[in-house]
Write a structure and sequence with these properties.
Helix content: 25-40%
Number of domains: 3
Bound molecules: flavin-adenine dinucleotide
Strand order of the largest sheet: 8-2-1-12-19-18
Radius of gyration: 22 Å
Distance between the termini: 15 Å
Structural class: alpha+beta
Number of strands: 19
CATH architecture of the largest domain: 3-Layer(bba) Sandwich
Shape: globular
CATH topology of the largest domain: FAD/NAD(P)-binding domain
Strand content: 15-25%
Oligomer: single chain
C-alpha cells in the first residue's frame, strides 16, 4: 500500500472486471473504497451463472485471453489465481473440423509468424506470400491505419482463403464485430500486440475453471480483507455534485469511479456532463450468443475448434468443455457479432447451430441443445471512426470500463487497464 490516498473516500460504481481492477488499485493506494454493484454477484459480463440441474455452473459466455493481456493476467495472479492451473495455454493454433489452419511455432514473434504462415498446410504459396507481404506493410507503417478504414477494406487485396480462414475469425473473435463493419485501426493494434510484441503474446489462454473463480471470487476476498465496503444488489440511482465532493445515492464521497455499463454511466451523468453522457449513450452494441450442446462421450479434435460461418452456420468457434476440465460432454458454440442471428430468433439460431454441429463432427451420442445464452449488449460495436468517451468526465469523476477511449476493443484486458488507469488518476 502506498498510502497516497489515505484520507480519501472513493466510490466505485460497478463490480465488473473494470470496477474490481479500480477497487483493488485504489485500495492499494490507501483510499477508503466503497464498491456498489447492482447485481447480486460481482464479475459483470464475465461471470459464472448460478446454473440449473442440467447445466450447473456455466459461464455467461466463453471467454479467451491472449498472452498479450498482461494486465489482467498479473491482476489475477496478484489475487492468488494460479494462472498455469486456471488456463489452458497454447501457442496460437486455428484448428478447423477437417483441417489445420494457421499454427504458430514457438520462438521470437516475427519469426514465429513468418514460419507459421509459410508452413500453412492448405494455402497456396501465392496466398502465403501475399499475407507475409501485407503483414510487412502493416509492420512498416507501425500497425496504424486511417481511423475510417474497415477491416474488410484493409484486407481487400488478400486472397479469399486468408480472409476466410484467418482475418474474419480473428476479427470477430477479438472485436465482436464482423470484418465489413470493424475498425481496421483497432484490429491492427490487437494484431500488433498479439503477433509482434513479446514472446508468448499470441498464446491463447482458455479458462479451465469458471470465470468467477478467475476474478469475482478472489477479488471479493481480497477487497473484503482490505476493508473495502462491497454493496451487492445496490443500484446507484443518483449521482450529484456536492461542494467539491459527490453524492452517490445517499452517501458522500471525495471522488467517484464510474465503472458501470456505458448506458448507466450515460444516465448518471446526463445533467453533470451532457457532452460526455451523449458520447456514452451513442455507442452501439453487438450481441454474443452461446449455444451449449450436450453429447455424452463425445470429444472434439481439439479443445477449441474454429468454424467456417455461413448463412446457415452461425458459430465461428466451438469449445470442448470436457477437454477444458469443467463439463465433460458439453460443448460451447460461440456466435460473435450475432445481431443478424438474434434478429432471426434464438430458437432458429439454436436449431441452425445444432445442424452445424451435426454436419461438422461425428458424435458418440446424438447431440442436443442444452442451453442458449444471449448477451444482447455483449460489447460495443467496434466500428471505424468510433468516438469513445474519455476517462475524465469532470474533476473527481472518472470513467472505467471496456468502452472508455483506449487502444483495445471491448475485452477483459481493456476493462482491467481502464480500471487501473482510473485508479491511478485519482488525486
Ligand atoms: C458472451 C461474452 C463473451 C465475451 N468474450 C470475451 C473474450 O473471449 N475475451 C475478452 O477479453 N472479452 C470478452 N468479452 C468482453 C468482456 O466480458 C468485457 O469486455 C468485460 O467483462 C467488461 O467489463 P467491464 O467491467 O468494463 O463492464 P461490465 O462487466 O459490464 O461491468 C459493469 C458492472 O456495473 C454494474 N452496474 C451497471 N449499472 C450500475 C449501477 N447503476 N449501479 C451499480 N452497478 C451497476 C453491472 O451490473 C456490471 O456488473 C465477452 C463478453 C461477453 C458478454
Amino acid at each position: 500500500m502506498d498510502g497516497a490516498l489515505s484520507t480519501r473516500q472513493i466510490a466505485v460504481i460497478g463490480g465488473g472486471w473494470a470496477g474490481l481492477a479500480s477497487a483493488v488499485a485504489a485500495s492499494q493506494r490507501g483510499a477508503k473504497v466503497s464498491l456498489f454493484e447492482m447485481a447480486g454477484q460481482l464479475g459483470g459480463r464475465a461471470r459464472s451463472l448460478p446454473g440449473d440441474a442440467l447445466t450447473p455452473g456455466l459461464d455467461n459466455g466463453q471467454h479467451i485471453l491472449i498472452g498479450a493481456y498482461t494486465h489482467s493476467l498479473k491482476l489475477m495472479a496478484a489475487l492468488g489465481v494460479d494462472i498455469d492451473q486456471a488456463f489452458l495455454r497454447t501457442p496460437l493454433r486455428l484448428r478447423y473440423p477437417r483441417h489445420e489452419g494457421l499454427q504458430l511455432p514457438p520462438g521470437p514473434p516475427l519469426l514465429s509468424f513468418a514460419r507459421g504462415v509459410w508452413a500453412h498446410p492448405s494455402w497456396p504459396a501465392k496466398a502465403r506470400l501475399q499475407l507475409l507481404l501485407a503483414a510487412s506493410t502493416w509492420l512498416a507503417r507501425g500497425f496504424s491505419a486511417d481511423a475510417r478504414l474497415s477491416v474488410s477494406t484493409l484486407c481487400t487485396g488478400l486472397p479469399k482463403c486468408v480472409r476466410q480462414d484467418l482475418i474474419e475469425p480473428l476479427c470477430v473473435a477479438a472485436l465482436n464485430t464482423p470484418a465489413a463493419q470493424a475498425s481496421a485501426q483497432v484490429f491492427l493494434r490487437v494484431l500488433r500486440d498479439a503477433l509482434f510484441s513479446g514472446a508468448g503474446s499470441a498464446d491463447l489462454l482458455v479458462p479451465r475453471q469458471g470465470l468467477s473463480t478467475l476474478m469475482a471470487t478472489p477479488a471479493m476476498k481480497h477487497l473484503s480483507a482490505q476493508g473495502v465496503h462491497i454493496h451487492l444488489g445496490t443500484r446507484v440511482q443518483t449521482l450529484a455534485a456536492e461542494d467539491s465532493a459527490w453524492r452517490v445515492n445517499e452517501h458522500r464521497f471525495d471522488q467517484v469511479i464510474l465503472a458501470c455499463s456505458s448506458s448507466e454511466a450515460a444516465r448518471l451523468t446526463q445533467v453533470l456532463a451532457p457532452g460526455w453522457s451523449a458520447m456514452a449513450q451513442n455507442l452501439q452494441f453487438e450481441p454474443i450468443v452461446t449455444v451449449y450442446i450436450r453429447s455424452p462421450g463425445s470429444a472434439l479434435p481439439a479443445p477449441m475448434v474454429a468454424l467456417q460461418e455461413g448463412p446457415d452456420a452461425p458459430a465461428q468457434f466451438v469449445f470442448d468443455l470436457g477437454q477444458l476440465g469443467t463439463h465433460p460432454g458439453l460443448f460451447a458454440w460461440v456466435i460473435s457479432g450475432a445481431s443478424a442471428w438474434v434478429a432471426r430468433g434464438l430458437d432458429e439460431t439454436a436449431n441452425r447451430t445444432l445442424a452445424q454441429a451435426q454436419q461438422e463432427f461425428d458424435w458418440a451420442s446424438p447431440p442436443e441443445v442444452a442451453r442458449v445464452l444471449a448477451e444482447k449488449r455483449a460489447t460495443f460495436a467496434c466500428t471505424p471512426g468510433l468516438q469513445r468517451p474519455p476517462m475524465r468526465i469532470a474533476p473527481g469523476l472518472l470513467a472505467a470500463g471496456d468502452y472508455v477511449a483506449g487502444p483495445y476493443p471491448a475485452t477483459l484486458e481493456g476493462a482491467v487497464r481502464a480500471g487501473q488507469a482510473a485508479a491511478s488518476a485519482l488525486g
